[in-house]
Amino acid sequence: MLAADKIEKRLENTPLKIGRYEFTSRLFVGTGKYPSMEIMKDALEASGAEVVTVAVRRVKINETTSLLDYIDTRRYKILPNTAGCYSAEEAIRTARLAREAGMSDMIKLEVLGDEKTLLPDPVETLKATEVLVKEGFTVLVYTSDDPIIARKLEDAGATSVMPAGAPIGSGQGILNKNNIRIILESAKVPIIVDAGVGTASDVSLAMELGCEGVLLNTGIAHAKDPVCMAKAMKLACEAGRLAFLSGRIPKRLYAKASSPEKDF
Amino acid sequence: MRITLNGETRECPEGTTIERLLDLYKIDKSRIAVELNLHIVPKKELSARMLRDADVLEVVTFVGGG
Question: Membrane-spanning regions, if any (chain B) (predicted)?
């Protein structure tokens, strides 16, 4: 086997495990805010994602097309979110409806604090996690990058903890990589950076730190060329993962020559 | 009788089942969840469940989101 193929195999043979599910791709991609459904479809394909997030909303009477007409559910695992919920009660209601709609028992739980910052409300998030775990959901929980709340969510039974890199849709990247490192140090569940990713290097950074995956939406959907950006995010995710698995060199203050000392 | 469907008041005849109402509004039943007065109605019960006056019905589906 060629060395390059071995490396490909290495990615395939170390899948991401989320509860009873396994995925080769570690990039989770949202389905909101694309210029058109066709562009979304192409972007999802280019991203290589196996998990795509969706929101739960009222059926519009007389609307003839549906989002799911553009998503092949045999190819993509649907991860419904509780976006737009500002209390545990609302998020639990939304999660139950999502499960009833019949796509999955996986839920991306997000309970937000306010509309301006869209930052998570940790108290309500924890409450909702406890209830949904008891009800048998596979809970992937969106939270702030605070290591203590991340640990509490894990203790409450979350299948995956998903700290924000930066506020939702802000494209600021990973603002506090030290917090992400602290979270990773003690976590026994997969840590997936969710939100705030602006460009490919943000994805690489998250993966190089040792995160198990990255979830993003706006960074692709609002790029000038979403399909091209989706491909860039895919490559960045794989590059970051391989760099993590390879073991990077320590950072040094002073230079160290790559060539032998001159001897003539 | 009058019911509320997704926040809007609608007239519907006595004895209408939830399934009949969904058909009337051409709502694809494969990708939805139905809540009647804040209680989820399992899919297999949609054809049997009769609507009553003043019922509040929510019918949700999946839309684009992150």
Answer: none
How far apart CA A67 and CA A70 sit, in angstroms, is 6
Domain coordinates in residue numbering, chain B: 2-61
The mean predicted confidence, pLDDT, of chain A is 95
Q: Is B45 on the interface with A (CB under 8 A)?
A: no
The beta strand positions in A134-184, using DSSP E, are 138-143, 160-163
- Neighbour-count burial of A201, counting CB atoms closer than 10 A to its CB (0-12 exposed, 13-18 middle, 19+ buried): middle
Annotated active-site residue in A9, A17, A41, A108: A108
Of A57, A195, A216, the CB nearest to B63: A57
Is A193:A162 a contact under the CB 8 Å cutoff? yes
Q: Counting one residue from A and one from B, how many pairs have CB atoms under 8 Å apart?
A: 106
Chain A residue at shortest CA distance from B22: A61
Give the closest of B6, B35, B64 to A55, CB-based: B64
Active site residue A108: yes
Mutate: best of A72, A97, A192, partner B, most B CBs <10 A:
A97
- Taking 50 as the pLDDT cut, the residues of chain A under it are none
B58 to A101: CB separation less than 8 angstroms, yes or no: no
**Domain B2-61 CATH (choose: 3.40.50.2300, 3.40.710.10, 3.90.850.10, 3.10.20.30):** 3.10.20.30
pLDDT at A9: 83
Quote the pLDDT of residue B50: 95
For tokens 């991860």, the residue is: A79
* Residue B30 confidence (pLDDT): 85
Predicted confidence at residue A13, as pLDDT, reads: 82
**pLDDT for residue B25 is more than 80:** yes
- The kind and range of the H/E element at A180 are helix A177-186
